[in-house]
Structure to design on (295 residues):
């Protein structure tokens, strides 16, 4: 059985192991440090530059060697080697709170190389505006593809109540997702005392396809158990997406003995809306309250 000898690095206090008494005594006598600290002590900027120059350009043994001229061309680790590499990895030191805090401090605020930067800024600096714009366009298309149709976590579900860009809130306890919906509630449903319910649930979900991507559509209201109503500005009725959507909706609801209607309506004025808010008849979500009353 081998007897090991131990001492701490005089610089970083890391524990060092020696297999013989002789090497241990020599290390004690010379007060030697660990390899990591030893390298750091000689790694001056001048020395780093010297090492860099030795392997720069044509001095690099791999200079000009591409494709089959590269000695590593076509070579890969065997599955056994890959398995050994994975098994021998020690991640324990990376999982300690001390290590995480150290890394956090090193990359916090303006110490972070991406501080107040986006990847577009990096592309702009590295490639110039033309290439950066191309990369951004490709990135947007990729993100859109990765979150379209069934890949979207909200696929098949109605939109959350506080989502989207429309002004949303409650009118006498009825939830609306846009000023157009609120206007329809006041000027049509309430004025003519119509029976209605929301169409934003799975019962009235319409499935359709655009550019090979499966999508779902939820209209706004079911009125009098006879009409399914979508509130939409007239200028948007003829877009490619809406034409496809409305055509599928018309067929779907016809099978349910319902008529599908798209309606545009005069919007309630801001002054009227503020008055309803002050009377407590309209309650906006926090997202919109200040923008309407102050903005």
């Amino acid at each position: 059985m081998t007897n090991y000898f131990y001492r701490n690095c005089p610089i970083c206090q890391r524990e060092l192991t020696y297999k013989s008494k002789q090497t241990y005594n020599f290390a004690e006598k010379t007060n030697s440090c660990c390899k990591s600290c030893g390298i750091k002590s000689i790694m001056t900027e001048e020395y780093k530059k010297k090492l860099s120059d030795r392997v720069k350009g044509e001095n690099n043994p791999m200079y000009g060697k591409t494709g089959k001229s590269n000695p590593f061309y076509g070579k890969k680790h065997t599955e056994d080697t890959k398995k050994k590499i994975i098994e021998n990895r020690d991640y324990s030191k990376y999982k300690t709170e001390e290590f995480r805090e150290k890394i956090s401090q090193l990359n916090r605020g303006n110490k972070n190389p991406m501080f107040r930067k986006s990847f577009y800024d990096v592309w702009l600096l590295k490639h110039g505006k033309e290439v950066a714009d191309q990369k951004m366009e490709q990135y947007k298309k990729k993100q859109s593809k990765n979150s379209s149709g069934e890949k979207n976590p909200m696929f098949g579900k109605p939109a959350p109540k506080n989502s989207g860009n429309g002004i949303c809130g409650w009118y006498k306890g009825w939830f609306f997702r846009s000023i157009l919906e609120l206007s329809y509630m006041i000027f049509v449903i309430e004025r003519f005392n119509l029976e209605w319910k929301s169409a934003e649930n799975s019962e009235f979900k319409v499935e359709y396809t655009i550019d090979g991507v499966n999508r779902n559509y939820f209209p706004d209201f079911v009125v009098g158990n006879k009409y399914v109503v979508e509130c939409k500005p007239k200028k948007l009725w003829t877009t490619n997406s809406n034409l496809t959507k409305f055509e599928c909706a018309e067929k779907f609801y016809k099978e349910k003995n319902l008529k599908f209607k798209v309606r545009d309506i005069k919007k309630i004025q801001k002054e009227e809306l503020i008055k309803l808010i002050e009377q407590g008849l309209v309650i906006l979500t926090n997202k919109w309250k200040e923008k309407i009353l102050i903005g």
